[in-house]
Amino acid sequence: MFETMKQRVACTLSLALMSPLAWAADTLPEGNQPGNYPLNLQAPKSGIAEQIFNLHSMMLVVCLAIFFVVFGVMFYSIYAHRKSKGAQAAHFHENHVVEVIWTVIPFVILIALCIPAAKTVIAQKDSSNAAVTVKVTGYQWKWGYNYLDDGIEYVSALATPRDQIDNYDGKSAAKNAHYLLEVEPGTELVVPVGKKVRLLLTANDVIHAWWVPQLGVKQDAIPGFIRDAWFKADAPGIYRGQCAELCGKDHGFMPIVVRALPQADYDKWKADTKARLALAKDDPNKVWALPDLVARGKGVYEANCAACHQASGQGVPGSFPALAGSKVATGPIADHLGIVLKGKAGTAMSAWKQLSDTDIAAVVTYERNAWGNNKGDLLQPAQVKAARQ
Amino acid sequence: MSHAQDAALGHDAGHGHDDHHDHKPAFFQRWFMATNHKDIGALYLWFSFFMLFFGGLLALGIRAELWQPGLQFWKPEFFNQLTTVHALVMVFGAIMPAFVGLANIMIPLQIGAQDMAFARMNNWSFWLMPPAALLLVISFFMPGGAAAGGWTLYPPLATQFGIGMDLTIFAVHILGMSSIMGSINIIVTILNMRAPGMTMMKLPMFCWTWLITAYLLIAVMPVLAGAVTMLLTDRHFGTSFFNAAGGGDPVLFQHVFWFFGHPEVYIMILPAFGVVSEIIPAFSRKKLFGYGSMVYATASIAILSFMVWAHHMFTVGMPVTAQLFFMFATMLISVPTGVKVFNWVATMWRGSLSFETPMLFAIGFVSQFTFGGFSGLVLAMAAVDINLHDTYYVVAHFHYVLVSGALFSIIAGVYYWLPKWTGRMYDEKLGKTHFWLSTIFFNITFFPMHFLGLAGMPRRIPDYALQFSSFNEIASIGAFGFGLTQLLFLWIVVKVTFLKKGEPAAAKPWDGAEGLEWTLPSPAPYHSWDVPPTVK
Ligand code: HEM
Ligand SMILES: [Cu+2]
């Protein structure tokens, strides 16, 4: 825990340092506050989102117009041609002219609707000439961001504490304003304002979808494939979204936060973050003592593994195996490392190779020495490094 | 009627002479070895009614959890099982069997045939369903629980689940077999067993829509079977159809699934078109407007439905040309669909309308189904779909089509033909109450979901951000109201069917109704059309 705590403190401090710049009020989109009755798409904050908004409004008007005409006629019949009012049924039951007309007119309306729609589709698909390229990886249930040009890389996960979410006893803590839409401090996707940001999306385990409504992007992240998408934030601010493809039990707890900064602030953020990440980087050749590794491993475990195997190591019977007393966690250490590095096909256990050598060494060591697993053995980061080859 | 033909129809040859005296087999033979099309239809309808309540209970489980933000009742993994099984049960257990039930009872009555073409196989197609449903139900009790990947069962997620997923796959296989057998039966019956003089262009609309639906079923059920079989071998036999690490492609599953899945939604709506095309003319006391164009529109919808599957996949990252093609093709379906709606409205125009319960449900169908069509048109716009796909907007859209569409039409059909089946009139006042409560609660439940989707609430989530709480509360209240209202329906049906309460029904209780079924006495005799009628 100490390690993640240290990181959190570092993040919070670096954010605090930048806060005089206070880019934009950190609120939810207008009309979308808790307790409100939001009726429309979130206020668009990118050119594409704006086009989407306008297309939707246009469709709404056209559909409502047709609806009122057609059902106006129907409700007029219901009103005026009632048997109880003595209406006599007419005898017509065919009219080719009318039938052709009401085939052709909708067809023409469709063509008229398709033209602007096609323009937006074409614009959406043009991801060329991006200023920044970020690789986005979906994990069950986190997002990994990798700034390909700058080597900045971190993982972004839900920050909402569990005691706000769990309300089984009716006594959950008060929910904060960004309930379920907040990520751990310092792990937002940070981008420059007004610049084209290209995303290269993939996933580590199952299909996820990266979606930020106000920026008008949604793209599936598919394991084994790379897909691209782009957006350009019009104004500085914070934009929130969620994973939009059912990806397992914590699908509802996979938020996305984008922080758009003016270029100068963005550059500063980049420099600071690089320095911070370099500081936090471990020497893979360092030799660790058992208690230190276990202590570090606990933090890694809670951040990554506890979602399924539970903090108690008991797992969820039938769904996720227990680690306490398990064959893997008490068997040969190489097999244990193998399953963490490579995952287990056909199950929710995915490969964790994205963790650092030290983190993997720590978490494996922790699992072998917690919850009554008293193996007393340990894995050094160098061994993990060797096993990766 | 020759003895050879009797035997083909599955009657015990020795009993052949009894057929004319409305002799019914003993209870066990009658219900467990049923070959009579009316008995099998009744079995289908009761089965689907039961599944409707079971699926509805699961839906209420979903809505209870979503009533308030936070997790109150279920673990998230169980929530996903609820949504998945709710959908599978509703689609394969409630809506489809209900239409097959209506087909079984009504097609022979409407075309003047003595029974379905393959009466013995008909028994099989029904009796495959309960075990399949049982598999779905017991999957909840397997280690790891039921399938939890949504009814779309997308891999690689679907390869992560336990044995519940395998049971689901087997259930889908069995249900597919049942559907194919049922479809063959319907096609052969309609094509070969029409009464003399009933040309194809005199076929009742309900038969037409079912004929086309049956072809769709035969075309796509094997596709679904293939998709889930590949999933099964990926799970257990080391294949990698959908596993990129082994050279496969997860998106392939989606293409195959939706090549089945899109026609599937038309399988659930074309027979509905047929039912309301019978009811609206009857209560307008006027012939169906544009019979010919109705037939052509139905056929065009069916054909187009094979060309639009990828509109469920605009966010997987298709090339721009594919996006444009699927967008245009999808929007095109609204043309024949529009023709149908215009024809229904024109049928009512200058009619002599009355509003008994079947008509109310039919009007509810037309207006609300059309609403679902409009939201479908919005979703068809690939660019807009980027912001709406996998949100509650989609949940609203397809429930407008499936509940106020398919389900309302089934209910309308049940009220319309109930006097013919039971020989008694249902309680009209209760029926009307049922309609109004259903409509009001349905809209309270699903209308706000449009707003939730627009505001950005993803679907298939057990908990949501606070800005979605107000509309979720309304939707949950509506859902419980809707669920309770259906108990009223159960009561209405039980009252005429089992308690035998209600006015005796005339052979033709609706003065505007047309069709052969109304020339038989009510209730229709156990063996009807021993002598085929002649159609002029
Ligand atoms: C009044 C009764 C119903 C209620 C209250 C209800 C409620 C719901 C809700 C809230 C969901 C959303 C789950 C989610 O995405 O998180 C859902 C999904 C679904 N429902 Fe219903 N539903 C009802 C009836 C029906 C009927 C009659 C059908 C007919 C076929 C149906 C088909 C589906 C399907 C296909 C899904 C998608 C499940 C998935 O995401 O895989 N529902 N229902
Ligand atoms: Cu996800």
UniProtKB/TrEMBL annotation, chain B:
SUPFAM superfamilies: Cytochrome c oxidase subunit I-like (SSF81442)
InterPro entries with a match to the protein in the record: Cyt_c_oxase-like_su1_dom, Cyt_c_oxase-like_su1_sf, Cyt_C_Oxase_1, Cyt_c_Oxase_su1_BS, Cyt_c_oxase_su1_dom, Cyt_c_oxidase_su1_bac
One Pfam family matching this protein: COX1
Protein location: Cell membrane; Membrane
GO MF annotations, alphabetized: cytochrome-c oxidase activity; heme binding; metal ion binding; oxidoreductase activity
EC id: 7.1.1.9
Membrane topology: Multi-pass membrane protein
This protein's UniProt keywords: Cell membrane, Copper, Electron transport, Heme, Iron, Membrane, Metal-binding, Oxidoreductase, Respiratory chain, Translocase, Transmembrane, Transmembrane helix, Transport
Sequence intervals crossing the membrane: 43-64, 84-105, 126-147, 167-193, 205-232, 252-276, 288-310, 322-346, 358-384, 396-418, 434-454, 474-494
Domain called Cytochrome oxidase subunit I profile: residue spans: 31-536
Catalytic activity, reaction form: 4 Fe(II)-[cytochrome c] + O2 + 8 H(+)(in) = 4 Fe(III)-[cytochrome c] + 2 H2O + 4 H(+)(out)
GO biological process, one term: respiratory electron transport chain
Main location, first listed in the record: membrane
Pathway(s) where this gene product acts: Energy metabolism; oxidative phosphorylation
Any one GO cellular component localisation term in the record: respiratory chain complex IV
Source superkingdom: Bacteria
Similarity-based family: Belongs to the heme-copper respiratory oxidase family.
Job of this protein: Cytochrome c oxidase is the component of the respiratory chain that catalyzes the reduction of oxygen to water. Subunits 1-3 form the functional core of the enzyme complex. CO I is the catalytic subunit of the enzyme. Electrons originating in cytochrome c are transferred via the copper A center of subunit 2 and heme A of subunit 1 to the bimetallic center formed by heme A3 and copper B.
NCBIfam families cross-referenced by the UniProt entry: CtaD_CoxA
UniProt protein name: Cytochrome c oxidase subunit 1
Protein's organism: Leeia aquatica
Name of the gene: ctaD
